[in-house]
Structures are given as structure tokens and as C-alpha cells.
Amino acid sequence: SLTDSPVILKILQNWVPRVSHYFDKEHYTYVGHQIVIQESIEHFGAVVWPGALALSQYLESNQEQFNLKDKKVLEIGAGTGLVSIVACILGAYVTATDLPEVLENLSYNISRNTQNMNTHKPEVRKLVWGEGLSEDFPLSTYHYDFILATDVVYHHAALDSLLATMAYFCKPGTVLLWANKFRFSTDYEFLEKLCNMFNVTVLAEFPESNVKLLKATVREN
């Protein structure tokens, strides 16, 4: 239930200040690796939001509880790719997905930050929430141990499609980890719908950033 007391955490300043000619690059350090993220001002999905920092930090600190090594991980709404890169460093088979217009920057960040590592080669794919799921990701072939999502809930029209996408991929045995900055009543309404469909626990809260990190699993009869 949601009444379990979550851990109260602070998002650590894990990025390295740089004197840089580019204002669009952020440098982070997770799991002992420096990660350079190129942001893009054209798209919402191409900026690092606080939920991505919160989930990256949590995955790094809780490797025993959530061991990603050799696990199949799908990130929906991967944005700049920070969380997918961290999951890849932690040893997962990662599929990072987002809208077509975000994929170029996403692919660039992921390949650049994982190319010289001895990790499973991550995959970048198009995924429009609620569209063509059974054609592009047939359940007979695709099963994921973890679904990762950060700051996917904000003021947009695709919330029902997002929920349908989470439901599609969340099968028995799958763990959904969702970190989000809670700003609007619609964010809480989405959480309520999620609680009606899944077993949901609040793992951690980052009060300074208004971020909650939630874990959801399918209800087994």
C-alpha cells in the first residue's frame, strides 16, 4: 500500500561543473562513470528533468534491491537517455524508447556514453505511447524485467495512452519504477489510476524537488 513510509532523500548534485564552450552539455557522475549528456532545447524530451536524476541516483544506491545485471530493461520516454545509460552501466540489456523526433539526440547520448564500456549494447527504438505496441513489441517475443519511466507525467494529452503502455508492458514479474515531479492535480489523478491497476509503493521522496519514486507491479490473482 502507499502507507509504507518511503525513504526521504535529496537529489545529490552529481553533475560536474565544467568550463565549457557548449551550454547544452551536462556532465554527471554515476556508478563511477562520467556521463556527458547533450540536451536539446527544441524538445521537452531532450532536457534532463529531476525525476531522471532521482531514479539514476536510486538505482546506483540500491543495486542489491534492484539488481539490473543481465536484466531486460525498457525505458519509456527516455528523453536524453541518462537513466538508460545508468542502467546500461549497471549491466542491463537496455531498450531506450521515445518519440521519433527525440531519437537522434537520444541515440547520440547513449552511444557516446556506452561505446567503450564492457556492457550489453543498448538499443534505441521508437515508441509512441499506446500506438502499435503489439506490432512493434509483440508479447510473445518481448518480456522486460524492469520498466523505467521518469517525468513522463506532466501536462499533456497522452496520459491515458501512457497508462495503457505501462499496463501493456507490465506483466507478472515485471517491476515498473517511475520517478516524477508532482506539480499538478493531473499528476495525482494519474497516480490514483495507477494504484487502481497495480500494486504501488512509494520507494522514496525527494521533497526539495517534489519528486516521488514509485514501484508498481501487476496484481496477481
Automatic annotation (TrEMBL):
An example Gene Ontology biological process: methylation
Keywords: Methyltransferase, S-adenosyl-L-methionine, Transferase
InterPro entries in the record: Methyltransf_16, SAM-dependent_MTases_sf
The UniProt record lists the keyword Chaperone: no
Family matches, as Pfam families: Methyltransf_16
GO molecular function: methyltransferase activity
Lineage: superkingdom: Eukaryota
Record-given protein name: MT21C methyltransferase
